[in-house]
């Protein structure tokens, strides 16, 4: 083998390959291979900027990197460095003055490692997985690649601290068994799909099981926006105030077995506006709507939201009986947060060789999946989750003008709690549960939602102000009937509709007029006066 190497490669090539792979220390569970990584690990600088004594230090520790570790054993490292400098002088590589100056210099190593996955193991796990899609192990280990990531260290550090602290707070507040709750989180810039931080567990520095990527758990009501988006994509049939029946539903399955989902409160609410059914996460209304629009169509919507995992066409999957990881849920919600465009979440922006030559760039890959108007309507409905729905208590922590859009989720027997939501600058998914699948005894809002709110507060989330698409118009509507309404009626609300699909009939404070289409004010249009307006004025003048 030695003869073959000598025949095919020059001594400089062989030495360079060795210098790019030689073992020079340990960073957590990861070895430090090559002078390029060792330079960053010990000195916080690229190898090209090392001083003579610093380079000699790295050379000196090669025989036993642990024994001569310059952080743990500085005296041993100095002795080895000085030996290298002496040999260099003896061989005429440096002058006597350079040798003496180098031998009297401090080691210069940083107090803590400036590089490596030990500080952010969950995020680096994602980086490694995405790199392996384009590069072989040989290229990653031997070629000295430089990888530019999307990691935001400030965001990551805040996320680590918030999750660790508030998991403990939840256990104390609800008298839960100590140190049993686990959590995972994915934080994304919704405008670019760049992953800013990943928390893989309660101990964020533990380089082990990465729950954010690998813990596939039932997502519960987190799946419901897909049902409502499917409906809103059919504006001739559905809008935000379309009455939905929240009443018991019975679905017969194979073998004659009947499935009849119940609301978490065990109370049915009769006819409710579509956006209210989503905001309050009514199971009966959601399943009824899902069956109306078609189970296959809902599953197709989920696929277009970026979920690659095969999902069986079972009615129970309308309530999230299928399992996804937090990263997969973040991919799903990114499609909503981006306005209907699918963008694969990315942790890498570019890869170069050691000379700075770009080997691969990771540009944003954007594909429009949904009508922006339908996404806008869904977003407005999801904002109601915080305004009046299952996430309303989060505003006890957050500023009221944040106007976040989100969704709570809980799996059967409260084994899993979820919250997925986005603001003007952040999309964040939080999962809370136990590794042993025992009940966490926490609903999505209580556990995951609580942590999500504290994350948004600590990360200075900005208010969500969705851009209104051109094909959206606003009108006053009666939230009980779904028909247009006078502004001053008791149940009147100002809601967006897709243009050309504004309801035709008018409800005058509970009195339905199937003939009049007047007296409705929309942005940019003058108020029209019809029969009921005239009649109202007649009585008020008496």
TrEMBL record:
Keywords carried by this UniProt record: Carboxypeptidase, Cell membrane, Cell shape, Cell wall biogenesis/degradation, Glycosyltransferase, Hydrolase, Membrane, Multifunctional enzyme, Peptidoglycan synthesis, Protease, Transferase
Boundaries of every Glycosyl transferase family domain copy: 1-88
Domain Penicillin-binding protein transpeptidase: 185-423
Catalytic activities: [GlcNAc-(1->4)-Mur2Ac(oyl-L-Ala-gamma-D-Glu-L-Lys-D-Ala-D-Ala)](n)-di-trans,octa-cis-undecaprenyl diphosphate + beta-D-GlcNAc-(1->4)-Mur2Ac(oyl-L-Ala-gamma-D-Glu-L-Lys-D-Ala-D-Ala)-di-trans,octa-cis-undecaprenyl diphosphate = [GlcNAc-(1->4)-Mur2Ac(oyl-L-Ala-gamma-D-Glu-L-Lys-D-Ala-D-Ala)](n+1)-di-trans,octa-cis-undecaprenyl diphosphate + di-trans,octa-cis-undecaprenyl diphosphate + H(+); Preferential cleavage: (Ac)2-L-Lys-D-Ala-|-D-Ala. Also transpeptidation of peptidyl-alanyl moieties that are N-acyl substituents of D-alanine
Keyword Zinc-finger: no
Pathway membership, UniProt: Cell wall biogenesis; peptidoglycan biosynthesis
Cellular compartments annotated: Cell membrane
Entry-linked Pfam families: Transgly, Transpeptidase
Bilayer-spanning residue ranges: none
Family, as annotated: In the C-terminal section; belongs to the transpeptidase family.
Protein name (Swiss-Prot/TrEMBL): Penicillin-insensitive transglycosylase
Organism whose genome encodes this protein: Piscirickettsia litoralis
């Amino acid at each position: 083998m030695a003869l073959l190497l000598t025949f095919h490669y020059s001594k400089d090539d062989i030495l360079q390959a060795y210098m790019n792979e030689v073992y020079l220390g340990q960073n957590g569970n990861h070895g430090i291979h090559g002078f390029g990584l060792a330079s960053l690990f010990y000195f916080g600088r690229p190898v090209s900027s090392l001083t003579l004594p610093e380079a000699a230090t790295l050379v000196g520790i090669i025989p036993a990197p642990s024994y001569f570790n310059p952080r743990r054993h500085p005296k041993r490292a100095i002795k080895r460095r000085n030996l290298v400098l002496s040999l260099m002088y003896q061989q005429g590589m440096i002058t006597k003055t350079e040798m003496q100056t180098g031998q009297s210099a401090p080691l210069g190593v940083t107090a803590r490692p400036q590089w490596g996955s030990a500080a952010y193991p969950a995020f680096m796990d994602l980086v490694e997985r995405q790199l392996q899609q384009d590069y072989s192990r040989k290229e990653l280990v031997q070629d000295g690649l430089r990888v530019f990531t999307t990691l935001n260290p400030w965001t990551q550090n805040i996320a680590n601290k918030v999750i660790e602290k508030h998991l403990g707070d939840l256990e104390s507040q609800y008298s839960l068994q100590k140190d049993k709750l686990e959590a995972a989180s994915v934080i994304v810039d919704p405008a670019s799909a760049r992953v800013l931080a990943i928390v893989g567990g309660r101990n964020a520095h533990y380089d082990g099981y990465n729950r954010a990527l690998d813990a596939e758990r039932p997502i519960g009501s987190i799946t419901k926006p897909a049902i409502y988006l499917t409906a809103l994509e059919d504006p001739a049939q559905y809008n935000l105030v379309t009455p939905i029946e929240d009443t018991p539903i019975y679905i017969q399955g194979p073998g004659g077995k009947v499935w009849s989902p119940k609301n978490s409160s065990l109370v049915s609410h009769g006819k409710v506006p579509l956006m209210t059914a989503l905001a309050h996460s009514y199971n009966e209304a959601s399943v009824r709507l899902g069956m109306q629009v078609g189970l296959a169509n809902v599953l197709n919507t989920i696929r277009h939201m970026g979920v690659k995992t095969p999902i069986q066409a079972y009615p129970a999957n309308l309530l999230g009986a299928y399992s996804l990881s937090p990263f997969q849920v973040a991919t799903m919600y990114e499609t909503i947060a981006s306005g209907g465009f699918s963008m694969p979440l990315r942790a890498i922006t570019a890869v170069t060789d050691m000379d700075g030559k770009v080997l691969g760039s990771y540009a944003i890959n954007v594909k429009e999946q949904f009508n922006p108007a339908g996404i806008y309507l869904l977003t407005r409905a999801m904002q109601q989750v915080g305004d009046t729905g299952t996430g309303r208590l989060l505003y006890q922590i957050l500023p009221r003008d944040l106007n976040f859009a989100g969704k709570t989720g809980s799996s059967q027997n409260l084994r899993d709690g979820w919250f997925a939501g986005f603001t003007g600058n952040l999309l964040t998914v939080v999962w809370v549960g136990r590794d042993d699948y025992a009940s966490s005894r926490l609903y999505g809002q209580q556990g995951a939602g609580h942590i999500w709110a504290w994350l948004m507060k600590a990360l200075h989330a900005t208010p969500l102000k969705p851009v209104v698409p051109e094909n959206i118009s606003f009108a006053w509507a009666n939230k009980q009937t779904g028909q247009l309404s006078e502004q001053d009626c008791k149940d009147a609300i100002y809601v967006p509709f897709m243009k050309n699909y504004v309801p035709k009939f008018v409800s005058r404070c509970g009195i339905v007029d199937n003939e009049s289409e007047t007296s409705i004010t929309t942005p940019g249009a003058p108020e029209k006066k019809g029969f009921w307006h005239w009649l109202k004025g007649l009585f008020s003048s008496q």
